[in-house]
């Protein structure tokens, strides 16, 4: 009984860390990466479609993204979606491909990004702790129902705490890696 509850909470914590990783990947740190375009959807024949399903995205240089649509008719729509997004990079199109030149980060923009990633990391930590709290409540309920002894409850809660600490450390490691990436000139 306790094992299932704990393994489910561990799985949920793992998903939370994955969400934090994706959030960090979509933040621009002065280096071109196709993940920058993950959140942008294009109105493709009336259907919101992610750019990576409409085009080939390549990184020929450290500060350049090239988007080559498979359907040339979708080029203006992709361009429009990029301009409407919060990416803040003007697309340059030559009729066949769209180029996004990633500008050098200013000190002010770096400071803003640091605030954003710290907030996202804290949200991830809070989510992991909420999962811990819910798991402990489930374990206590199981003990009240007579499915767990007090010793098993204590052991299970200790295990949940160790798992929580491990995932919080993982989020902290992701945060420190992203901070170094942002501060790198």
From TrEMBL:
Q: Known SUPFAM superfamilies for this protein?
A: Ribosome recycling factor, RRF (SSF55194)
What keywords were assigned to this record?
A: Cytoplasm, Protein biosynthesis
Q: Which GO terms describe its cellular component?
A: cytoplasm
- Looking at the record, the residues that make up the Ribosome recycling factor domain are 21-183
Looking up CDD domains in the UniProt record yields: RRF
Subcellular localization(s) per the UniProt record:
Cytoplasm
Annotated GO biological processes are:
translational termination
Q: Disordered: where is this region?
A: 137-157
* Signal peptide limits: none
Q: Which GO molecular-function terms appear in the entry?
A: ribosomal large subunit binding
Q: Does the keyword Cell inner membrane apply?
A: no
Q: Which NCBIfam families match?
A: frr
Q: What is this protein called?
A: Ribosome-recycling factor
What species is this protein from?
Pelotomaculum isophthalicicum JI
